[in-house]
Amino acid sequence: MGLKLKNVLPMFVFLLLASTAKAQSAALDVTSAKYGGKPGSDITQALEKAWTDACASTTPSKIVVPKGIFKFVGTTFKGPCKAAIEFQLQGTLQAPVDGSQLPKDDTWIGFDHVDGLTLSGGGTFDGQGAQSWKNNDCNKNRKCKSKHINLRFHVLTNSKILDVTSKDSKNFHVNLQKCEKVEINGFTVSAPKESMNTDGIHIGRSTGINITDTTIGTGDDCISIGDGTKDLTVTNVTCGPGHGIAIGSLGRYPEEEPVSGIYIKKCTLTNTTNGVRIKTWPASPKDSTASDIHFEDITMVNVGNPILIDQEYCPWNECKKGVPSKVKISNVSFKNIKGTCTDPVAVKLACSPGLPCENVELSDIDLKYTGDKGPITSVCSNVKPTINRVAQPLACATGAAAA
């Protein structure tokens, strides 16, 4: 009897482990008979059912949208869920062209209160936003109706966004709010330069976000960093077309939180209107801070304003320009920034007269002006930067302290 048990128990354990592994790897294919999704049709209900099943599973699940083009009206996939979920998009999800057919809020696809999400598969989220851009008057009408964001992540934790594409969003492509420990790798944003208000990746009130090996072409900031962002690392990102990589705008609303620990490294910007910048509104309703912000090893190719601090940011003239910004900027470095620019003012540090910038460093700056509007130059106000290995035209001589 003892020998029989000895032989049977290992087999039982093996079968149990095999069964568990099979359960963990079982795919919830939205085109299966259970969910009924079909290429060319609306699979909103099929995806919602698959999410409900995955979210209720006590073992990790995989939702699969196979290759093909699928219509998707939109929804927000809500947690918390009982185990990790991989959402594998191999094909293309298309939003309705007409925004009135989308959800009532401003989100096409959302993930809310989810821990352990992996969004992968090499597929495309196509917002079909061209018609919305044509009808967008937000550049002159601040009461304009908000368009739909392609992907909104709210309270997403311990998650990954890998090797997928956001295409032609009606509004921002990606918005992360109140997220923690999220990796974005191999991500692509694809939209033309005329796509208004289509920030590639916007981050706000989030901690521990890591963006690597990502390509962004759009009609607004490639990456915009809002209030409350901490411990953000951006590495090996290519940007263009677009408005560059921006901290802010900050200092417009009274409830804003400080920004700190921002590292932008080894990025290339091509044919963008700006390079790397920090922008804050004048006449801020309360004091705030933006600190420990570092730009390093950045290549500029035909960029308008490569290096910019603008504490008089005031689009649409909706501010009191004569009242200083109350956002204190400190511990900022621009290191090893090289390439070409299309504006003769290659370096502009316009800090607040009420709260001058502190501990700003310019090191190894080598920029060439490709235009014919005069010699390349730099402009500084309310800042005394430390200068290391920067040619005189770019050395921000006004108020600068050479090192």
Structural notes for this entry:
The protein has 3 helices and 29 strands. It has helices at 2-25, 44-56, 130-134, and strands at 27-29, 61-65, 69-71, 75-78, 85-89, 92-94, 107-115, 117-120, 124-126, 149-162, 165-167, 174-177, 180-185, 188-190, 201-204, 207-217, 223-225, 230-239, 245-250, 259-270, 274-280, 288-303, 305-310, 327-341, 345-350, 358-369, 377-381, 386-390, 401-402. The chain has a 29-stranded parallel sheet that branches. The model is unreliable at 8-25 and 399-403 (pLDDT under 50).
TL;DR of this structure?
By secondary structure, this protein is mainly β.
What does the average pLDDT come to?
Answer: 92
Terminus-to-terminus distance: 85 Å
SS content category:
mainly beta
Percentage of residues in DSSP E strands: over 45%
Report the sheet with the most strands, covering strand number, pairing sense and barrel closure.
29 strands, parallel
List the total number of helices.
3
Rg on CA atoms, Å: 24 Å
Tally of extended strands?
29
The general outline is: elongated
What fraction, in percent, of the residue positions are helical? 10-25%
Outline the low-pLDDT stretches: 8-25, 399-403
